[in-house]
Amino acid sequence: MRISILPISFLSVLLTLAALVSPAIGMQDDADSISDTPVTIQYTAKPVPSEANADWVPLVDDHDEIEIRFSKLGAGIEELILLDEYETVALKDHIRLQQLVFNEATNQTAVPFALLGLEIDGYYVELSGAGFDAPVWQQLGPGVFEALIIDADGSNIALVTRTYTMRDTPHAFMLEQSVENLSPEPHEFRFKTTAMIDMPKAKNGYAGDRRRVRYGMLHSAEQQGPSIQVTVDDKLANRSKVLGKKLKDANGNKYYASPMAVWPTAKTIEEGSRLSWIALSDRYFSVVLHPVLDPLSTNPDDRLIASSIESIDRYVLNTYANAPDATMVFAASSPALTVEPGSTATIANAVYAGPRTKPVFADDPILAALNLPDMVVYNIGGMCAGCTFDWLTNILIAVLRIFHSIVGDWAVSIMLLVVLVRGCLHPITRWSQIRMQRFGVQMQSMAPKQKALREKYKDEPKRMQQEMSKLWKEEGISPMGMLGCLPMMLQSPVWIALYATLFFAVELKHEPAFYGIFQSISGGSWMFLADLSSADGAIPLPAAMHFSFPLWGNVSSINILPLLLGVVFYMHQKYLTPPTQATLTPEQESQQKMMKVMMVVMFPVMMYTAPSGLALYFMTNSTMGIVENKWIRAHMKKHGMLEIENIRADKKAKGPGFMQRMNEAAEAKKQLMERGPQAPNPNDRRNQGKHK
């Protein structure tokens, strides 16, 4: 085999990705063309005997929570397995947050946390082992690997060591990389590695792709001052933001440009932001790359990752794929390390790979010091992001946990939480519904007079408006009555926050509903409501009948809760729809009925593969809404609050409302301006003695 050593350039960037790709990738043509050019071989990795690398021993933490299986490509991670987390409630297949990804279409391979190569005085030495006739890495022990770099004469130049060590805290490990200068001359070294790669795409596509890229940052040294507070980005941008926009090739096909700077970028340089940590997250889990630090340190710079990572770029494994199927690979470059002969330089990073939950982050001193708890947000993003307040979701999840500690069942806790929220919002709901229904009665009583005015002044729009305004004033009806629904709309952030909280709550993952009663009575054979984080799965479908639908994702069962939800939603509409305030034409009535049918049908369709915990939330909320509305109507009927005579009497007793007083004040001011200032009235007691 022939190894070409090139100065750092675009071509050497291609070689930097050698560990990501097999010898047959598209960019290999560029590498082959390079080999036709005469170059000088200065340094190369020394192959080791194949028999010395027959089987590599995996690394397992003391808590039996993580198992790391290693790849011979760059001594990276072939599989990072969560031993305490499973793909489904069947508890058979463990979740793999990081794993080697092979793309058959392009014949490319991506390996997370692999050492791609080492720069030595500006020359690149490939250390991935891809394409070598023999392995270049050997395992010295569980999680410990070394590779030897030699020059063209076979003399030893550098010894590179990679050491994976499990931390004492759950789901966490460290990765140390060291280079020992074995030559008689000082050298400048720079590590080129992959960091994390894309987390697996969710099998259930409900609510879209929830994968995100998150950052922890410090401000510029001047702005940060002595503060050790790490700022967590609040953009909540999906991974598509980091993927960027597609470009077009010569044939008009769209592809993702690769590479693309992730950190630093022109914007972060302009703002003076400094990187503390970077993370990939999905609905329930996170993989966080962060510095190793003393959590008690009061030096802000200790919370920066700059001592081990100088820059991060984003590569795409399959550049022509659609966004959900494209695989992002993060490549990191270390700062330059000057090492004297016989000396060793070491850089270290730590990785967290596990559930994305505040209690876990807060219990780890290092993650707490890096402000990782602030990364946990219960927010769907998109249009609803602005009205989903963190303080509100934090309260809701805390109350949900309290209910669970009392009743011991998450489904019951969800229902109790909905009842509590509706109870807290009841005064607003009651006021709003009474106001809307009384306004509807007033409008109905005034409808004949309005119709007469429209017919009388149909050719005089301005006069019609004046007479309508006069009629409203005579009837004592304020336009503010139309805003009776406003308080109900202001409740929306609460319900959106509750929806987002239940969707992202990792506590609901693989938890059965109602104490697992359906599994108990069936001997475990009926998996209905066995997992609150997925669809109810009432009637499983054979594997041959599984299918995917853009709105639903993967469908593997017939679900009952969405159908029941349609019935409840129909009743909710029937009892909560306010009385019509105007006479409708037959066409309008037909359209209104069609809209109701569409809403009743479309809502269950949209929720067909929704997590059963969310379906229980909607069913409980709608049922409570029906009960609450019937109680309010009964109360109003009992006290005659919808009788037009009583409404008018109440209105007269209260006097003019706020809007009416404002209108009268505006009218008085207008008349005053038209008439001009009036002469003082000498008979007015306030003017006595002023004109003597």
Q: What is the subunit organization of this protein?
A: single chain
**What general form does the structure show?**
elongated
Task: Output the CATH class name of the largest domain.
Answer: Mainly Beta
Low-confidence stretches: 1-38
CA-CA gap between termini: 120 Å
Which architecture name of the largest domain does CATH use? Distorted Sandwich
Number of strands: 29
- CATH structural fold name of the largest domain: Beta-galactosidase, Chain A, domain 5
Q: What structural category characterises the helix and strand content?
A: alpha+beta
- Helical region count? 18
> How many domain units?
2
Helix content: 25-40%
Kindly report the average pLDDT value: 84
**In percent, how much strand structure appears in the residues?**
15-25%
Describe the main β-sheet briefly.
Answer: 10 strands, antiparallel
The value of Rg in angstroms is: 34 Å
Task: Give a description of the structure.
This protein is an alpha+beta fold. It folds into two domains: 10-376, Distorted Sandwich (Beta-galactosidase, Chain A, domain 5); 385-538 and 611-646, no CATH class. The chain has 18 helices and 29 strands. Strands 1, 10, 11, 12, 13, 15, 16, 20, 21 and 25 form a ten-stranded antiparallel β-sheet that branches. β12 (156-166) and β13 (172-181) form a beta hairpin.
List its traits.
10-stranded antiparallel β-sheet; single chain; disordered N terminus; 2 domains; Beta-galactosidase, Chain A, domain 5; 7-stranded antiparallel β-sheet; 29 strands; 692 residues
